Amino acid sequence: MSSDYKQNSLSLTDAVAMGTGVMIGAGILALTGQIAELAGPWFPMAFVAGGVVTGFSAYTYVKMSNAWPSAGGIGMILKKAYGPTTVAAGAALLMALSMVINESLVARTFATYFMRGLGMEPEGWLVPAIGVGLIVVAYLVNASGNRSVGLLSQIMAVLKVGGIALFGIAALWAGGFSFEATGSAETGLGGFVASLALAILAFKGFTTITNSGAEITDPHRNVGRAIVISIAICAAVYLLVAFAVGASLPLGRIVEAKDYALAEAAEPALGRIGFYLTVALALVATASGVIASIFAVSRMLAMLTDMKMIPHSHFGMPGTILDHTLVYTVVIAGALTIFFDLSRIASLGAFFYLVMDMLIHWGVWRHLREEIGARGWVLLTAIGLDAIVLGAFTVMKWQSDPTIVLIALAGMATVFGFEHVFLRRNPPADDPHDHGQATGRGGARDEQAP
């Protein structure tokens, strides 16, 4: 497997471009309206609070990646924390699925903005058809090799970060730096806290960098640096654009146009030309987001296969495991794009990601914090913040859409059940470099229940 990866093929700039590519592609474009629906007029602050929670969360990934940079970063962290167990494999698969879910979220967002740019209502079969078309194009770019992904990610990252930031500044200027999205939020504090689940989802693209650790130059330093830089850039862009949208549209209109809020905010602030420029920026942002996400998740699935934590079949396809996982990634993302709308895709991704994130922090706190020099209180704070946000989000979704809560629970139960059966039938050999093999006091530890 190691021969399938090219060390030093991604620079620090490439890594930052990939991280911002995934985050901005999904975050500000796909989720602004959904966050406003939950948080009310405080939705710009939801991005700030989400960034703070993400900062605590990123601490674990930075510490682990600095110690053990890996092409399957999340899988590596979980295996070192828990050993080759159901918990490690199930949580890693949840992360991979949440990344695939992100691809379908961004692909449908691309389709929504594309149709708005043509003056069409984003509905009907054309939305999933265009989304699947983007996923196929992203597959072709990824299949052409790392250098194409890195160079394209850099170009698109500069275009969209600069362009979306200019949109925010211009919209605020045109709106006289006022804030039109005022009014009382019906959901109150609970809605605001629940909205942080989606805000956190808007930042989760930093894990793309973790999953490409073995291919980044000087990874022991640059993986952590790339994560911090990406989160900082995205937090600034999110806050700027959220205020710009709030300066152009009343809250009710933002919620009504939640799937294409930036395009809707552009026209009253910047005119018809501004509208079309914003649509163009959205298309660049979402396209690069899908390309970067597919790049990362295919590598994570390949690493999990190499770790013997998930099954693999080539289905008669030629090439390496990495080639096969690239195909699996786009097929699953395409299916989700067809069968789920934006709101449910985002909710499912939030459930999977937050559960996985808590399992990572707990495993590192319990087994690895001393070895990597991590502060225990930071890890426990990350767990607590995730738990509060997940609880509030679950309550809100249970009230508005209980079906997606049941789908998420069934999905997680299926993942852990599947991994339990698979690992019992195909027990991986113990790796002496995995650090979750003992409690430190009581000798060999039992497998952790999720």
Automatic annotation (TrEMBL):
The membrane topology noted for this protein in its Swiss-Prot or TrEMBL record is:
Multi-pass membrane protein
Q: Where is this region: Disordered?
A: 429-450
Q: Does the keyword Glycoprotein apply?
A: no
Query: What Gene3D superfamilies does its record include?
Result: Amino acid/polyamine transporter I
Q: Report the GO molecular function annotations.
A: transmembrane transporter activity
Location in the cell: Cell membrane
GO cellular component terms, alphabetically, are: plasma membrane
List where the protein spans the membrane: 12-36, 42-62, 82-105, 125-143, 155-175, 187-206, 227-253, 273-298, 319-339, 345-365, 377-398, 404-423
Keywords assigned by UniProt?
Answer: Cell membrane, Membrane, Transmembrane, Transmembrane helix
Would you say which domain of life the source belongs to?
Answer: Bacteria
Coiled-coil stretches are none
Coarsely, its chief localization is membrane
Q: Which PANTHER family match?
A: AMINO ACID TRANSPORTER-RELATED (PTHR42770), INNER MEMBRANE TRANSPORT PROTEIN YBAT (PTHR42770:SF11)
Protein name in UniProt: Amino acid/polyamine/organocation transporter, APC superfamily (TC 2.A.3)
Which organism does this record belong to? Palleronia pelagia
